[in-house]
Amino acid sequence: MEPTLREGDWLVAVAPWRRPRAGDLVVLRDPRDARRLLVKRVRAVRADGACEVAGDEPARSTDSRAFGPVPPGEVVAWVAFRYAPLGRIGRVR
Question: Which of 53, 69, 71, 93 is 20 to 30 A off residue 33, Cα-Cα?
Fold first, then answer.
């Protein structure tokens, strides 16, 4: 499977207005370094609202397998749209 995002993609991310759902592409604070932001796909949402996240390339991704579930307050935005490069403009799923 080809990753959803590629190096050089420019994204529009919007503030969360609902709880994350499986399949959402989200921006979250890196649990290992809160100054850093990560873009990951939500794989599952636990009963307590914490998200299990994974990268689209599991062999090259650091995700919930390494740092565990992400508390709801650490999800800072949803990825909504890619606006560059020109050949890849469109909604991100």
Answer: 93
